[in-house]
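Protocol step 4 of 5: obtain the predicted structure for the target chain.
Materials: sequence only (see below). No template structures provided, no constraints applied. The aim of this step is simply to have a reference model before the mutagenesis design in step 5. Sequence pasted as it appears in the construct record:
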Amino acid sequence: MENFSREIAIIFKNPWVVKFTIAFVGLLIIRGLMFLLRRSFAKYVIDSPTSYRVRKLVTIFGYFVVILFLAIVFKDRLGGLTVAIGVAGAGVAFALQEVIASVAGWAAIIFANFYSTGDRVQLGGIRGDVIDIGVLRTTLMELGEWVKGDQYTGRIVRIANSFVFKEPVFNYSSDFPYIWDELTVPITHTSDYVLAQGILENILAEIVGAYANHAKRSWKSVAKRYLVEEVMVDPTVWLSFNDNWIEFNLRYVVDIKARRLTKHHLFGRILQEFDKVSDRIAIASTTMQIIHPEIPAINRTAPKPAAPK
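Step 4 output (structure tokens):
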């Protein structure tokens, strides 16, 4: 037992062993404090978005404390490691250039406000809602693909943050949380198009009129930030016609996350109102009738060639 104690004492006389022991114990303490800090915040923060942001801030703060603590512990040894770290850093930078680009992309996302959690975006050709922004990857809940409309597919996609430097970033809900949407309603040439237009305008005002009021205020803030012209955000009904029917184009602004549901309500109300005046308005459609005429019999007997004279 005495020999064992002597060996332990000799080991701990080595300054590197002491420093690594202090670093290990310190990291355990910092990890425990971060865990307790998250638990204490969770008791007071109820809503999910705020809770998510608080957890991220605590995690980033924990990384900062760890780096600061290790720098203090090994401060007298850092000078001698400068050359070695420089040589190793050049090789690491080349081997991990994609990782470094992703970290830089994370910094750009956070500080340049490319997007934030909850935004609907398109990154690298993939559309979805941002559910997490990590140091290396952004996590999306995917939309579209084999699912019609703006509905989730159920797939969670992780995209490297370096994509923000390589491809366009489409943000559907950041500065202006609305998009313009359109639907087309054809009626027959014999329908009362004046009555139909009045019905459609009333339906738009009823269902999407509130979106227009909010969009006007949002567009003012966009106009202050960017060089954009004034636009019409009120719902409008445009009339045109062709050889087949009279066509109404309904244009309106809508919350990006309520686009499909809004279109569902619009089509439902249009059918209800048109059914009330079915004697004056009829929905037009393309009708094709295929006729099978009698095919005349074909004489397949080839004529005999005339005899030479």
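Step 4 remarks: The longest strand covers residues 178-187. Strands lie at 120-123, 126-133, 137-143, 152-160, 170-171, 178-187, 236-241, 246-255.
Proceed to step 5.
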